[in-house]
Amino acid sequence: MLNYKLMEFFDGEPEIVPDIAIKEEPDPHYIGHRKRVKERFVTSGAANFSDYELLELMLFSSIPRKDVKPLAKKLLENFNSITDLINIDKERLLSISGTNENLYINFAIVRELINRALKQKIINKNIIASWGSLIDYLKVNMGNMRLEQFRVLFLNKKNILIADEVLSQGTIDQAAVYPREIIKRALFNEASNIILVHNHPSGSPDPSKADIDMTNIIVDMCKTINIIVHDHVIISNNKYFSFKSNMLL
């Protein structure tokens, strides 16, 4: 509909003319949709949302002026799980049409909040007695890494976590391990016990012969300074392998 307004010409005679410039345009359809989705989230709660709807809600703040429902569905179709999606690296995410750096930042924030929440469950607690919580923390922290990483959990006499340190990060199928550096860090942290951890980006947590041989070397070196290696855990996606549970320690 055209709007009309009065215009007064120099001769003082008013005239009603159509004002094309202030023609009202309807809001894009996605604006009303976003409002309805947000209202339903507030009234119904997250539990009543499907995976793509929750992801779509997150995309609202990352991509402000666009219908993001197709992108939400596309992202879920391209990944095996929500965990894989949240753990995506920046380069891979930005290679997907429609994504942007804001979305990567939001995913990184969610990932870090989850990591911290899980870590709180093992801080100041007996790690051995909280084994399930430890494995959950390690799976989220390392399970979807594209490069191999080696870390050590340093514990005191009561098996309370003193430090969680990444000692090396390598390629897709190997990370350098230096037993002397482990000993050095154990002494620095005044640790009585340690747990070795590394990941396998390949998808299989089963240890290689090199994994087994290196573990034995570390165990023998730790014995010389009365430090106990409780376990060596290998993480891969949502699976893990425990040397101790499989009688390799």
From TrEMBL:
Residues 127-249 form the MPN domain. The keyword Zinc applies. Keywords: Hydrolase, Metal-binding, Metalloprotease, Protease, Zinc. This is DNA repair RadC family protein. It comes from Rickettsia bellii str. RML An4. One of its GO terms (biological process) is proteolysis. It holds the Pfam family RadC. InterPro entries: MPN, RadC_JAB, RuvA_2-like, UPF0758, UPF0758_CS, UPF0758_N. GO terms for molecular function: metal ion binding; metallopeptidase activity. It comes from the Bacteria. Belongs to the UPF0758 family.
